[in-house]
Amino acid sequence: MPINKDLKKILVIGSGPIVIGQAAEFDYAGTQACQALKEEGVEVVLINSNPATIMTDTNMADKVYIEPITLDFVTQIIRQERPDGLLPTLGGQTGLNMAVELARAGVLERENVKLLGTQLTSIEKAEDRDLFRELMRELDQPVPESTIITTVEEALRFADEIGYPVIVRPAYTLGGTGGGICATEAELKETVASGIRYSPIGQCLIEKSIAGMKEIEYEVMRDANDNCIVVCNMENFDPVGVHTGDSIVLAPSQTLSDREYQMLRSASLKIIRALNIEGGCNVQFALDPQSFQYYVIEVNPRVSRSSALASKATGYPIAKMAAKIALGYTLDEIVNPVTGQTYACFEPTLDYIVSKIPRWPFDKFVHANRKLGTQMKATGEVMAIGRTFEESIHKAVRSLEIGTHRLYLKGTESLSQETLEQRLVQADDERLFLIAEAFRRGYKLQQIQDLTKIDWWFLDKIERLVQFEAKIASEPALTYETLYEAKRLGFTDRAIAELRAAGQPGGTHLTEESVTHFRKEHNLRPVYKMVDTCAAEFEASTPYYYSTYETENEVVQSEKEKIVVLGSGPIRIGQGIEFDYSTVHAVWAIQKAGYEAVIINNNPETVSTDFNTSDRLYFEPLFFEDVMNVIEEEKPVGVIVQFGGQTAINLAAPLQAAGVRIIGTSLESIDEAEDRKKFEALLSRLQIAQPKGSTVTSVDEAVGTAQSLGYPVLVRPSYVLGGRAMEIVYSDQELLKYMEEAVNINPQHPVLIDRYMLGKEVEVDAICDGETVLIPGIMEHIERAGVHSGDSIAVYPPQHVSDELKNKIADITIKIARELKTVGLVNIQFVIYNNEVYVIEVNPRSSRTVPFLSKVTNIPMANVATQCILGTKLKDLGYTDGLWPEADYVSVKVPVFSFAKLRRVEPTLGPEMKSTGEVMGRDPQYAKALYKGLVGAGMRIPATGAIIATVADKDKEEAVEILRGFSRLGYKIMATGGTAAALQAANIHVTTVNKLSEGSPNILDMIRNGEAHFVINTLTKGKEPERDGFRIRREAVENGVVCMTSLDTVRALLDMLESINFSSQAMPVL
Amino acid sequence: MQARLLLEDGTLFTGKSFGAEGEFTGEVVFNTGVTGYQEVVSDPSYYGQIVTMTYPLIGNYGISRDDFESLVPSIHGLVVRRYEPIPSNWRAQYSLGELLKEHGIPGISDIDTRMLTRKIRQNGTMKGIITTSAKSVEELKAMMDTVCVQELHNQVASTSTTHLYHNPGMKERIVLVDFGAKNGILRQLNQRGCDVVIVPHDTTAEEIRRLNPDGIQLSNGPGDPKDVPHAVKMIAELLGEFPIFGICLGHQLLSLACGADTEKLKFGHRGGNHPVKELATGRCYITSQNHGYAVKESSIAGTELEITHINNNDKTIEGVRHKKYPAFSVQYHPEASPGPQDNNYLFDQFLEMIREHKQNNPQKSRQAEMMAAAKGEL
User: Quick check: bond before B338 cis, omega within 30?
Assistant: First the structure.
């Protein structure tokens, strides 16, 4: 069927900020969809609150609204734009929930907007547990015994009937928020209580646990003519019980015979047909490993994280096809963009094995509960492609950047047998490595199977890898045959050297270099194969490659000069989608300058790994050996490292040492900014102030230094990314505790101690061509220094910084950028203390704020920076030295956190970054911009309500004045003892609530019962979770109550409320 | 043990043996299915062929007693990137390697199968020889030339049953003409309660009439349809008299019997992901396919056939129907095994056609006639 001509204008809803369970994959999907719609001449209106996305670039849609995705704002846009259709299936759960809200509120009907892709009834059937089970019954599709409950008592009764363990799944939540497996009554009580709170409709499904079965997924597509295809099936390495987003996943399935494969395929098609979906859909199954018995676990009637993975795994662009289908096209009419000669109505077939491993934030959140269950905890993922399982999984492991590049994790050898076995049973993020460790200790395959329930096939592979490691280690001299086999199994040269050094201390090839040399002597190099959707049956021209050790190389070299751009790998806290945004812009600029752009990256969720983005995509680990191999294949004129975050920066030195030409800011300059001593010398040479501090190498030295600087001081290990293990300490005692717990101090691992200045933080991103320094804008942070810049609310243009200071900041930026001979981007962070500007940090690379600042200043910063790197002068582009004129609009970047998903994580803001995403609020007025930002970030802001405050003594004075403001606006103030007394003393009406130790009902009960809209709690001391403050903050987070831990945030909220609300005051008495 | 694969064009691949020892020649083809190696290995249509699986890991789930398409595999060799000797599946009874060794079929692993596939795609299907011996390339080339020629025209006879047998059921009597039939066809007919009589490929029209069928199912089979002229004759004779449903080779034979022509494809269709468009509805179906020949589109004009299905990618003919008589056929495999089950409904259509035919042509009872003959009154 041809395009539906009635659809002239379509509204697309994005997925909003990056949170656990909803990440960059929806930027990839949304970008594809917008492009696909525009290709067809349809006018596209986009709403998304997340500025760090390619899809919100103004050239991606005809109209881009960076506004909160709430009923009010979306309704207003619908009224303004009058679209003919609404496409919500590409914006994740956020988009789908919004569509449901709009439909239920009658907006779609009233404004005559057609819902495209999936109908409301289908969304309800797939999402509402009861309707879903009814549908499955009609279709004769088995589902596990279950019941819907709305109270804890019902849950307990049902569990008694069917027996433990049971699974709790709250309705309409993403990433399984609030759910879990419960083996006891106590666990069930707790989980159900939180599940009910998280479900927007207060509903949970209690289900018989089918943990231990194989988990299989199918990605299905359907068009209006009822043509259905399966794009890909996937098998989880981890059996049912671990959320699929937290599972290691293989595509295609490995242990299913054709009968099982077709049985589940037919079931998937039956389901998508019954749901009448026009677009993509994901169906998850549990399959009994000992029979044909299966259960349908879940259906997602939309494009999902799995479909992004399936798209990258097969080359089949699901989101793009879904958008075309929404316009009325049928699959048999749409050309397969990979082959250009066949059609989209076929099923991709793979001739390689794809592995996905999630990337978890536990390196940042050391206190978090790292057990994996039905609630997703990963922030990102890596994907790898190989021709054997071993090659694929090895590549995935080294893509993770967790300090290992094979199936070995330091420290696992010292685990006790008991701990090891426990952790094999209860999966956590390190289980893959623990299985390898168990084999090293001589465990039998059957034993491990009993403990993990993982399929023998996978376990056998790991066992044989461990055996092969032993073979590498035990050979007196490394033979070519062993090396060849090792490379075919995906071992790196470094791994081979490590194994040999451990097994044959006096043997051959003990260093990575010598192994590489030996390998090259025998001309053992990888070849590159193409991902073409069809296992080479048809000719394809997609420039999408992966490496393997085989015979034929498929890369066809071109005459053009090439530039390689290194991507930023998996999304993690501190290195998010913002870096992918810059990478994509760099590629576009390279292409425009007449070069071929080559990307190396391993993150399946992103736009940069869409094979349409670059001239050549190498889906490879960002590991030295893999990157070097691509460089040797492509022979680029230069490699750009400054857009790929710390991942790419860390590769700069080894690459340059290997003779690779790094273009942009030189390695020496990068080092000058990152090396503490050199950096200090640089600043003092330029006579720029910085907080006093020094590097110490022992505990005694640390205490002495801290005392001489004066507390509080900022402590951190040298050379780390994103404020990891950084803390502010207020006393000798705290310092000693930090030294003991957080760092292993010695002369090789020094610790930095700086005076902590409690001032205003300001951040700048600048572009330099080596001479001219363009400063697109200055961002002011709402939260004072001490809160990580990535977790602060940032305002552009600054609202509380004088012109004099702005000029000073600009001058310093120009000086530093020039002195560093910066070519490209540089990010500088300042603190303003007593009207003096100090430099805290210089990052000679693209930063987290580049997409935000690009959008609000209208300067495509990554693009301009890339042009500079390629030799264009800023002057020739019409830019001059210094600060660019400020925009009329005020824009606010508000961080978004995923605390609710991470049990036991401290929600207090501090020097370590904790946010997973961001939203933007934009308005001519600062207060309204802030309002939009906060609302977009998920804060519910009632015109009046109640606040519970409990603040540290040092903050009481400040807090009292702020709370007075809230009281004037009509907010009810509640506070615990000390805080209440301070408020009373200041004549503010306050209700005293019990502290935890003072009996029920106490502050936790109030929060739990929804009696407060905001919780204000500032940190006292110590980090131990058992402290009251921690429990209060966690209670707030887990109940979806806004919890503010910085008084600056509270003050900003108050200022905002004061300017958009009215307060009443009696007439002054004369 | 080392194994080598030599192609007609001189390309030599060296890998490891995981099947039987010795030399084996055949036509080298590739199959793009990710699952279903057991069905492929035992599908008689692959008789005489050396099959390359494009999916690199083969052997993962072993061999099960339930998934044979014929009890004696007839492929001439299996080529894989990586053979998985230790299967993991609850139904696995032994490994793929054991099966190949038992039946004297060679298997070669650890070669660049994607390179081989691309070669076949570019140059078309080629002859090849797999060996585990140390014979020289020249010797192997000579063997390939002599053995291949003898084998290539006698494929149907080698895979068909040599005598008729009965697979009883309670419903329609179907005569299944076995040109190298897959068990999948029989399974589909059994599922529908049919009373199936399986007959050899060279059964005559008269012999079939004697079986008094309600419908005739023409099976799949190996090789060139023009190598089976006797079957074309048989079909032409029975056309119109009994409803006929042809699958794969059966489809080509029905087309030949109706006056159309067939041709060899460059490298054929083998896999479980081929899109077929039903022209009447515009619906597209994902099908399981395995054929190296196809009905020539230009030869349809002037026959009583109409094209019902085409391949949505290369537009070759995938299904025809006789304009007057109850007869239709498809180039693909509605019985799946391996591959998608989306087209099982064609067997229902066949049975529907039989019912309609019966209604329109009520069978005269033979009772009175027989009585009269016995009493000499005729």
Answer: yes
